Each structure stands twice: as structure tokens, then as C-alpha cells.
Amino acid sequence: MTSYEQSILTAKALSSKKGLDIQVIEISDVSVLADYMVIATGTSTTHVKALADEVEYKLDEAGISVSHIEGYRSNTWILLDYIDVIVNVFSDEAREFYDLDRLWQDGKPVDLTNIID
Fold first, then answer.
1. C-alpha to C-alpha distance for 28 and 17, rounded to whole angstroms
2. Average pLDDT estimate for 37-45
3. What is the tens place of the pLDDT at every residue in 51-102?
4. Residue 49 belongs to what domain range?
5. What angle do CA 110, 93, 66 make, to 5 degrees?
6. Of 45, 64, 91, 96, which has the fewest beta carbons less than 10 angstroms from its beta carbon?
7. ∠ Cα 24 15 105 (to 5°)
């Protein structure tokens, strides 16, 4: 599975659990960290954890294991590192505070129209 396909599968997993403001940003031209950055918001700490769990479950089902997880106990920002795809699931306050959307504004946004609800 390509990193693009992984990022789309991630966006679909987040959407299936009602993640908000899901963004997939291609960052391969601006960073060596990964090919794609996926960002989403949960409505509560429980929702943030459920979103991260769903991503991990769906990608594991596809045969893709997470390399590293950060912030799972905090439930306000959980980072799932899949090497080529980095997934950030935030509470609304944490997303506003860290403002990764602005940080990665030089990346190329992926159009999710007709991909997620």
C-alpha cells in the first residue's frame, strides 16, 4: 500500500468515527519526516482516544503496524507514527494551540471531496 493510500485509509477511519476537520497534507516536498500528515479533531478526550484507536485498528487490519505512539494517556493530542504517514488527533483546544495546519501550510492539501463524508 502506498503512503497516499495509507493516508486516505486513515482519513476514512477518522471520518467513520465522526472526526472533525480532517486534513491530509502531502509534506514530502517540504519535509523528510514523512510523505503525509493527517490531522483531525475529536469532540472530547474520549472521542480523541476512540479516533486514534480506530485508525490503529483499520491500518492494522490492512497489515500496517504503527511504529510509535505518543500522547495516548493525555487524550488531548495523540500522535500515531506510521513512518510515511503521521497521524495527529487533537482535542479542539490542543489543535488550536499547536496549530499544525499553519505549520504545514507549505504542504499540498489532499482534496478529500468524495472520499470522506
1. 27
2. 97
3. 999 999 999 999 999 999 999 888 799 999 999 999 999 999 999 999 999 9
4. 3-107
5. 55
6. 96
7. 20
